[in-house]
Amino acid sequence: MIVTTQKPLDEVLDFISPYSNILIAGCDGCTQPPRGLREAKTLSQLLELGGKLRNKNFVFKVTTVVKQCDSFLAASMLKPQMDDIAAVLSLACGAGVQTIAELFPELPVFPAQNTHFIGAEEREGGILEERCVGCGDCLLAQTGGTCPVTRCTKGLLNGACGGSKNGKCELDPEKDCTWILIYERLKEQGKLEFLKEFHPPRDYQLRGWRVMT
Amino acid sequence: MSEQVTEEMVALKLNEDYCSSCSICSSLCPFEAIKRDTETGKTLLEIDKCQVCGICYSACPAKAIDIIYYDIDSLIGYLERAKQEYECDTLVIMCKGSAPDFTGIERLFGVAKFIPLSVPCVGRIPEEVFLKAIVMGIKEVYVLACDEDYCRFEKGSPITGRRILALNLLLEQLGYGKEVITLKRNSLKVKADRDLCISCGNCAFYCPYDAVKLESPGAVSFDLAFCKGCGLCVAMCPAMALELENWERECISALLSQLASEMQPPKILVFRCQWAVFPPLGEEFAPNIRAIDLPCAARVDTFHILEAFQKGIDGVLIAACSEEDCKQEKASRGAQHSVARLKERLKQIGFEDRLHFCTITPRYPEQFDKELEQFNKRIETICLKGSRE
Question: How many domains does chain B have?
């Protein structure tokens, strides 16, 4: 899932203050926590209250899109709703915001979120952590399902380094040493020989910027 | 500080002078709050365990139990007043836990005009209240209790069933006709709008009763037999795809608008868990205060809190049960969590002091009034400050 956090309301109010009729578009796709209809409504309610303090009356139209980053879905769901709309406030990740911006080049499109990373959620603790950087050359088969590119602070492909102390990272004592996690996992699976395999430096070209479906 | 030492008023008391040590109360108490001391033979009440269901009060043959809420005198007093006010001879006694809004009553019993009597658990109504109502000229009595396995006071609903069976036989023998009292059981259930579902799994995660299952591929299924109608999933659904039967979002919004329009500033709206605050019959508020009673604090929707502010309400107070007292397992904690998150966001626009979450128990009847008074003062100060600026 794509992990986002809500931008400070003041910042959003600054974006939208020049406009009155604003479409607030949620995204039901992969943003986490879900930024669907409820979040879009809540945001409209908060912005209306915040706007009143600035003597500004907004007219919000609230909607949600299955996946904002899919230009076909976004166009078919949003186009019929765009009458009188002067600006769009998107609750999607950066990819969704850009898709909407391209669909409606004549309109200002603002992000309501800061996009952080591709992550996983531990619901009980309400914690979201980064799990994938999208390197284009997945190593998880050799590392017991734990990604060193993302989770090792130094991004080491051959670890652990000398800075690993009691299973924690020298740069952040709160953080588990990823290579120790990998070691423990491989040991459990009886695959410690994987650690003998040398991983050459990453080929950054593999990451790419365009993929054909 | 010496004031704090004075004894706090409690909702239930045992009167030793009248007690005949028959043990009916201790055998009925669902919470083991009343026990008989085997050595002294005395009946003892542990108030901290008491959930003030009133079942003991309704069953005590010696009238040795005093209760603050819905005692026989206040119930009969209410019926006498209400009979004049509503001008009808049909009485509907409903447990708050399963009572839908009044249009739901019409649907369930097919009665449009009736005297409503809403109490937390019908099991607390003694036989003599039913009989007194009949004597007063009430022709038909409808009772809406919770499903037996759904009763928040465990034994309340089964006791009601047995009591009504016996009363109907008695009334028939006395010549009042057959089945004067009609009993129906109901329990609130969640309703899902499949078209809106985004398969996020929040409902399955938050449900305290395992009533929601996630099935592949990403489909959610509700087992309504397990659903206890707390409404937590409804408040947590990011797609607003869920509703609580008879407590639909729109119904609450409509009530909220109506209350907001009849209030005087500084307007205070209280969302109350029906198990946290037992309001007196015929409760009246100051002109600036109104309350919405909900089946559980979990049904307090952040949407409605914000809507209240949008409609010009100056302060929103939420009265919930503590986690230990919550009748819906972890629902109270869920409510507290989502209110805290909303408060964080309200802080960004300077509204955080206008929202307050407190935990209340009916076992100390003065607790709610104290919280309300304090909050009222706080909102008065905020509004005064606002008007000066």
Answer: 4
**Furthest-apart CA pair in chain B: how many Å?**
72
Does the distance separating the beta carbons of B240 and A41 come in below 8 Å? Answer: yes
The residues of chain A scoring below 50 in pLDDT are none
Reference B310, options A48, A41, A13; nearest CA is A48
The Cα of B303 is separated from the nearest Cα of chain A by a number of Å equal to 6
Q: Complex ipTM, two decimals? A: 0.86
User: Nearest Cα to A135, choosing from A212, A210, A206, A30?
Assistant: A206
A 10 A CB-CB count for A23 gives: 24
B314 phi, psi to nearest 5 deg: -85, -30
> Does B236 map to a domain?
yes
Which of B239, B307, B310 lies at the smallest CB-CB distance from A37? B239
* Gap from A40 CA to chain B (nearest CA, Å): 9
**What are the tens digits of pLDDT across the range B215-244?**
766 678 888 888 888 888 998 999 999 999
| CATH architecture of the region A2-117 | 3-Layer(aba) Sandwich (3.40)
Whole-model pTM: value is 0.89
Are B91 and B124 members of one domain? yes
Q: Which two tokens stand for residue A103?
A: 């669909």
**Chain B residue numbers touching A46 (CB-CB < 8 A):** 306, 345-346, 348-349
Delimit the domains of chain A by residue range. 2-117, 133-207
